Amino acid sequence: MLNYLIRRLAIGALTLLLITFVIYGLIRKMPGTPLTVDMAEMDPSKQISPERAKQLAAIYGLDKPWPQAYLHWIGNVARGDLGRSYSRKQPVLKIISERIGPTLLLSIPSLMISYLLSIPLGLYCSARDGKSDERVISTILYMLYSFPAFVAALFLQLLFAVHLRWLPLFGMMSDHYETLGTWGKTCDIFWHALLPVTVFTYGGLAYDARFIRANMQEVLRQDYIRTARAKGLGPVGVIWKHAFRNTLIPLVTLIGLTLPGLLSGSVIVEQIFTWPGMGRQFFESITERDYPTVMGLTLMFSVLTLAAQLLADMLYAVVDPRIRLED
Amino acid sequence: MNITTPVPVVLPKSPGFWKESWQRFRRRRLAMLAFWFVIFLAVVAILSPAIVGTKPLICRYQGKLYFPCLGYFSPRWEAAFSGSPFFKRYPLVLKETDPNSWAIWPLNYNDPSRPVAADEWPDRPANPQSSPPSRQNWFGTDSRGFDVFAQMVHGTRTALLVGVVSMGIASAIGITFGAIAGYYGGWIDIVLSRTIEVVMCVPTLILILALMAVIDTPTTWHMMAVIGATGWTGIARLVRGEFLKLKAMDYVSAARVLGASSPRIIFRYLLPNSLAPVLVPITFGIAAAILIETSLSYIGFGAPPPNSSWGKLLQLGQTNYQNWWLILFPGLGIFLTVLSYNLIGEGLQEATDPRLREGGGGH
Fold first, then answer.
1. B209 to chain A: which residues are within 8 Å by CB?
2. B299/A contact by beta carbon, under 8 A
3. Which of A24, A165, A250, A266 is the most buried (most CB within 10 A)?
4. Does the CB of B317 have a partner CB in chain A at under 8 Å?
5. CATH for A92-319, among 3.40.50.150, 3.40.50.300, 3.30.428.10, 1.10.3720.10?
6. What is the CATH number of the domain that holds B199?
């Protein structure tokens, strides 16, 4: 087990180096630098002189070729320094930590709701396999699963915010947020989060329910299920005690793999709801050519993805003693 | 001794794998419905200039036949009319410059990349701006006066093309990598598997945004290449797995003993047998590619005009929510297309998976 862990960590570190190297090269090759993008937005009178631009480029390390700049960046990262954002004049770590909260505010409730609903739904569907109500639910789940999140976001906005005017269109807080009491503030954020959480939830919910049902179908064909039925066990006992427990292994893996999504947010959905989360920050940083922030976020996403894969494999071995990790 | 001549026993030819799969696929009503919907979209995409446009399908001008509607596929094909006196405005100029000319027009006179001006067509008023659906503009117009129906119809071409071409690229890369890794194994497999893992770990959107930004003037073709270059990893892993499994089978050993070369084993014995499971992720991949294209166009990283895209319509809709027709129609278009490809993928999966066959697993 320890050998396996060490080998996986070494491979993971190598993969991280490769990913960050490729992304660093790519973003440095994008047209425009943080300085020119910034200048284009400022009015002409405030434009910096060529000498000053050169000076700034030297400070930011933009005058060096990118492989050299990459070495500099990775050296700093190894010492725990993610650098400072060019456009926001703040440490990258601070920017990321400010954006984590709003993203978690959407992703944690959505993950919990989707599992709370998908497990009973999936079990219900597998218990009533082939009946008419099961077909209706399955068809609806399939439609939801195929409904693109950004289209759903726009449709929901159109219906609930523009047409019915029940919910706010976008943002995380109202303009008068500061004047509200603690309870008012909570309610305000709750109303604003309702639509984004819905958009984040329904797809995962449909996917998980279908996933559970597919695994249940596989398990329900096994001989031990027939044995359990033959000895007179009721449908609840068969489904819950015998079948569902044996579908937990793939489910645990699935949960493991969704963990990075908790923090990464979604670029497009956060953009639609102008929600100040990680995905939106990433998009803004790319358009501002803010290299340190883009790299910091990329590093974080990649570490999380790799960690989740490792975690899923380890959980697999923990849940199912037949699996050995030595390979 | 009486020798009976042996009567040859004629066995009915058993249906092949693909025929049997097709029969099973046909039994799924929703999958067939989705299949016909995709065929319908393909017909709309091919005939888009004939359904809605401002260029004649066929016209006779100064004794010669022209097909200006092909200009929607490539501007080169209407080069004869791009200069004076036409400037790509046909109806009146045709009559004025050549009274004997005739032309066959599209079903609906509207253009996906410009508003129709007043009196361009006899007795037809100019396109109003931000107008709801009407008899003149079936799906309404956007804030620039461009017809939404025209943009939807011509956007079908973009959507379908992006799906098919980018997944074509992705499957070419994926099948090649997967086949080589699975067949040769050893250090080749280790190197290729690592590569696949690295590409898998790079967040797709980061890679696509970065690649799109590197290109100075991105076109739809660039986008297809980028989507294809990032979407092959799943296919590669699947093909690798199939090859690992198949190459240990007896018939492959038999082929090797008979002296078949590696390319022959790969292309004749392994690839056809690993194709069925790969078709499923390819179909789902087409849906995913269409989604990526529309969302990229939606956030403004899409191909520049005059390429129409459903995603771009949504972007226009988000700047003014009162124009619901800018969100509803393209949104439904994207949803139905993605749903259809997913249904087809699901149908294929159940039709080709031997474990799900009747009598196979049995329940």
1. 283, 286
2. yes
3. A266
4. yes
5. 1.10.3720.10
6. 1.10.3720.10
Q: Is there a domain that residue B124 lies in?
A: no
Hey, is the C-beta of A207 within 8 angstroms of any chain B C-beta?
no
Give the helix/strand (H/E) hosting B103.
strand B102-104
**Is the CB of A23 less than 8 angstroms away from the CB of B206?**
yes
Domain ranges of chain A: 2-78, 92-319
Handedness of CA B295, B299, B302, B306 (dihedral sign): positive
Contacts of B194 in chain A (CB under 8 A): 11, 14-15
Report CB contact under 8 Å: B210, A30: yes
> Does the predicted TM-score (pTM) go above 0.90?
no
Cα angle A30, A32, A33; round to 5: 100
**What is the residue range of B347's domain?**
149-359
pLDDT in the model for residue B12: 76
Smallest Cβ–Cβ distance between B342 and the set A27, A146, A268 belongs to A146
**Has the ipTM of the complex gone over 0.90?**
no
pLDDT value, residue B360? 41
Are A15 and B201 an interchain contact pair (Cβ–Cβ within 8 Å)?
yes
Instruction: Give the separation between CA A190 and CA A179, rounded to whole angstroms.
Output: 16
The strand ranges marked E within chain A are none
**B139 in a domain, yes or no?**
no
Q: What are phi and psi for residue B52, nearest 5 degrees? A: -145, 135
The number of C-beta contacts closer than 8 angstroms across A and B is 106
Per-residue pLDDT, A47 = 62
C-alpha–C-alpha distance, residues A126 and B8, integer Å: 50
Contact A155 B327 (CB under 8 A): yes
Residue-wise pLDDT tens digits, B66-87: 888 888 887 777 777 766 667 6
* B100 within a domain of the structure (yes/no): no
Q: Could you report the per-residue pLDDT of B33-77, keeping only the tens digit for each?
A: 999 999 999 999 999 888 888 888 888 888 788 888 888 887 777
Q: At B69, which amino acid appears?
A: C
Let me know if residue B204 belongs to a domain.
yes
The pLDDT of residue B123 is: 78
The reply to whether residue A267 touches residue B205, judged by beta carbons under 8 angstroms, is: yes
CB interface of B with A, residues 208-227, below 8 Å? 209-211, 213-214, 216
Single out the residue of B159, B158, B150 nearest to residue B69, CA to CA.
B150
